[in-house]
Each structure stands twice: as structure tokens, then as C-alpha cells.
Design goal:
The two termini are 14 Å apart. This protein has a domain at 17-105 and 177-259: Rossmann fold. With 270 residues, it is α/β, with parallel strands linked by helices. It is globular. Helix 5 (160-172) packs parallel to helix 6. The longest helix is centred in the C-terminal third of the chain and has 16 residues, at 190-205. The protein is built from 8 helices and 15 strands. Strand 10, helix 6 (190-205) and strand 11 form a beta-alpha-beta unit. The strands form 4 sheets. A 6-stranded mixed sheet has the order 7-10-11-4-12-13, with helices on both faces. The chain has helices spanning 58-65, 88-94, 111-115, 129-142, 160-172, 190-205, 217-223, 247-256; strands spanning 4-5, 20-29, 32-42, 47-52, 73-78, 81-83, 96-99, 122-123, 126-127, 178-182, 209-213, 226-231, 234-240, 258-259, 262-264. It binds adenosine-5'-triphosphate and magnesium ion.
């Protein structure tokens, strides 16, 4: 079996116990095995970047954690206890929120309506617009969002970065403990990317465990506390983002599952 060799245990920057620990996850779609003995850990107050080439299995792993795909084998522990995340509701109940790349916001609704879609607050049987507005404002403020002028702005009038911000705020509303962001800066320009990366850092600063899926190694190096690299459905490395981590080593892990002494042993084939 191919096991990661030389994987650092993070003792240089001990992150404490993980909030989520997916251990030995296997997942196949029909005859195709997509996840192989995946060991993935996410820590509170830290940004864990999940990197890997197209098709490496990042979204599949996240969907297992989010209760969208059932796992074939393995254990998911959350806050130290075994969790059976059999459907998205179970994930939500644990405080696991995923912001998917398409964001799933409604263009024709305003920010408040989007944030409370399907979980509107009511008072004596009518919508409590005041309470929802207030909660939307507070959530945006807690994330340090200053570029959104009014929470009553329609989403169709927002920039890409502002939309991403609203999608993240929507995910955080309520009891978010673990937030997964799938490529949040993929479609953004330089300034908007910086805003979203700032938001990612603040989210972790608020104690949330953040998973950042990204193909942009500069973003990863800038905000990640740790990096988990996937290669052909396997975790090739789980490393703290310290001085030794470079763009080149990350690219090598992504493209070959190995960088120097770190990574999968020889013999991995598609
Ligand atoms: N529902 C599904 N049915 C069958 N195969 C699937 C399904 N979902 C994903 N796969 C396969 O699993 C593999 C991993 O896909 P996944 O979407 O997890 O990759 P990824 O790392 O998120 O890639 P990307 O960076 O392109 O988003 C791919 O080969 C894909 O074709
Ligand atoms: Mg994906």
C-alpha cells in the first residue's frame, strides 16, 4: 500500500486536537475508487488549504464531510466524537457549512433575503424583517465587511467579491464551526481576492475551522495555517505552512504527489 512518507506531524506548530478528523475514508463511484484511505484533519481557528489537481478528489472529500455522499469506509470524528454525517442536515446540525463555487445565491433577491432563504425569521406569523436585517448587518460586521453599502441591495447589483462575501456570511449565519470554501477567489480580480482572503483570515480569527480549496498557490501560502495536498484520491501531505513551504513544493505535491522527502511513496498510478 502507498502510505504518505515523511509527512510532518505538525509538531513545529502544534495545532491542538482537530475539530474534524476524517480517518481512513474510502469512496467509490461504481467501479471507480475516488478516495483512498483519506486522513484529513481540520483545526479550529485555522485555515486548512485543501489542494490538488483537477479530479484529485477534493470536492468528493468535502461532499462526504457535508453529508452529500455516503462514505464506503472510514470514520469521521467531530469534536472528538464519532459523527454519522448521513445527510446534509446532519452536517448543518454539527455546524459544518460549505460554500460551493456557484454560490447558489438568488440574483433577484436582496442580501437579507438571500441570507435567510428557507430559514426566515418570523414574529407573530409575519416576516420579522427588522430582526433579519439586524442579524445580516451584524454577521457582515463580525466578518469586517465594509464594502457592502446596504443589506437591502439586490445580489444582481453586487460585484463578484461582494457576492462571495454574502455567500460566506450566509454560511456563517447561525452556528458555523467549520466552513468549507470551494475556490472562493477563482473568478475574482486582485483587489477582490484580497478582500475575500482577509475575510477567510477573519473567519479563522473568530475561531472557525476553515477549509480553503484553491488552485492558487499564492493564496494558499498567504492565508493557510496548514496544507493538505491530495493526489489521485490520496492525501500526499499534511503540513504546517511554515518557512520551508514554497510555491514549487506545493506544485510538485499537486502534480506528482511528492516533493523532496515529503509525499506518497513511488508507484502511484492512475
Ligand atoms: N458523482 C460522481 N460520479 C462519478 N464520478 C465522480 C462523481 N463525482 C466525482 N467523480 C469523479 O471523482 C474524481 C474526483 O472528482 P472531484 O470533483 O472530487 O475532484 P476535485 O479535486 O474537486 O477536482 P477540481 O479541482 O476539478 O474541482 C473525478 O475523477 C470525478 O470524475
Ligand atoms: Mg472540485
Amino acid at each position: 500500500m502507498n502510505q504518505p512518507s515523511g509527512v510532518l506531524d505538525g509538531s513545529a506548530a502544534d495545532p491542538g486536537p482537530p475539530l474534524l478528523h476524517a480517518d481512513g475514508l474510502n469512496k467509490s463511484f461504481g467501479p471507480v475508487q475516488v478516495l483512498h484511505d483519506v486522513d484529513f484533519r481540520v483545526y479550529p481557528g485555522q485555515v486548512t488549504a485543501l489542494i490538488g489537481d483537477n479530479g484529485a478528489g477534493k470536492s468528493t472529500l468535502v461532499k462526504c464531510i457535508a453529508g452529500i455522499h455516503a462514505i464506503d469506509a472510514g470514520v469521521i470524528r467531530f469534536d472528538g466524537a464519532e459523527a454519522h454525517i448521513d445527510d446534509p442536515k446532519a452536517a448543518t446540525a454539527l455546524g459544518i457549512k460549505v460554500v460551493y463555487q456557484d454560490l447558489a445565491l438568488c440574483e433577484n433577491l436582496d442580501i437579507v433575503q438571500n441570507m435567510f432563504l428557507g430559514r426566515e425569521l418570523t414574529k407573530r406569523g409575519v416576516l420579522d424583517e427588522h430582526a433579519m436585517e439586524q442579524a445580516a448587518r451584524e454577521t457582515l460586521a463580525s466578518l469586517g465587511v465594509r464594502t457592502v453599502k446596504s443589506v437591502r441591495q439586490q445580489v444582481s447589483s453586487l460585484s463578484g467579491g461582494q457576492r462571495q462575501t454574502v455567500a460566506i456570511a450566509k454560511a456563517v449565519l447561525g452556528n458555523a464551526q467549520l466552513v468549507v470554501l470551494d475556490e472562493p477567489t477563482a473568478a475574482l480580480g486582485v483587489a477582490q481576492t484580497e478582500q475575500v482572503l482577509d475575510l477567510v483570515k477573519r473567519l479563522a480569527g473568530n475561531g472557525v475551522a476553515v477549509v480553503l480549496i484553491s488552485h492558487n498557490m499564492n493564496d494558499v501560502l498567504e492565508v493557510a495555517d496548514r496544507v493538505s495536498a491530495m493526489y489521485l484520491g490520496r492525501i500526499a501531505a499534511d503540513l504546517p505552512n511554515d518557512d520551508t513551504m514554497t510555491r514549487e513544493s506545493l506544485v510538485q505535491l499537486i502534480t506528482s504527489g511528492r516533493a523532496g522527502d515529503i509525499g506518497l511513496t513511488e508507484g502511484i498510478t492512475e
